Structure of Fe-S protein, radical SAM family:
Amino acid sequence: MRETPYYSYVVGELPEGCKYCVRGEKLVLFVTGVCPRNCFYCPLSPWRRKDVVYANERPVKSVKDIIEEAKIQDARGAGVTGGDPLARLSRTIEYIKALKEEFGKKFHIHLYTTGILADEKALQKLYDAGLDEIRFHPDLFEPNSKFLQREIENMKKAFDFSWDVGGEVPAVPGFGDRIKWFASLLDNMGGRFLNINELEFSETNLRNLLTRGYRPISDESSAIKGSLELGLEILEWGEKNTSLNYHLCTAKLKDAVQLRNRLIRMAKNVARPYMEITEDGTLRFGIAEYEDLEELYELLVEEAGVPEEWLYINWEKKRIEMPVEVAEELADAIEGDVKFYIVEEYPTWDRVEVERIPLN
């Protein structure tokens, strides 16, 4: 077992899908929030627990939205997730085919599924569409699960096709023996890897986890106490007792590496000339807010002498955007009700604002 440069831990080698993911090269394609299971630890937000589609943060209305988002990210692959993508199999097949047709066979696509709906016909369609890697997440954490036997039987069928087959489960404290059982089973079937995720609190699973006695590792973290330690224990055990590759994906990897690298890739393609790209991949620029934007624009150009190419009217957010240096100079020179700020935003579709500094 060794630690990676991505704050995670590995036995053997990283699964192929993870290699792209840690570099920020994987488009996150959320096909549907529909799922045949209701796991107590599911972190999905309420607005995603529906039959909706997202490419990263972008709501999807057509295949064109997915292709455009992949191009903005300079994506070299996609992770197809949900819910369970097989709950909307036709849609999933359509998207996989479209991505392969647009970006070629080397565009790596992996998919997560519970396995409940992964019968032979579904697996054949996924394989024919060009899926490269399939990851099973069986129902290990519910006693007397009514799904587990069917999930395992369907997982066996996946080995009839020449793609990478693996597992992906959270490290739920108290269930180490169940995860080891699944690892042994996967190894005996000929699986390539088991990916283990550090369990985290979210808005939607908080109550379920607290009532079961789980606690965060600190007031500043959403990671669950004991999850990382269990993951490390399983990797140590797996290295001695199986031939699988293992990857322990930590909460820190998701935030400090995966998201950051994706933001940097996107920022290069969406930044306007007046925007700075920070080392974290956010966009930094100045803004001016005023009730009448046309009047303000005219004032800045004609009276303050600001070149038009340095200004952009953002009608949606009701502001004028500009270089930081220009905003700093204007904040000292213009009096009245005009408010100047330096802002930082994610380069994502929803442009989440992460910082705002008032200048006047």
Notes: The two ends are 54 Å apart (CA to CA). The chain has a mean pLDDT of 96. The first strand starts at residue 2 and ends at 3.
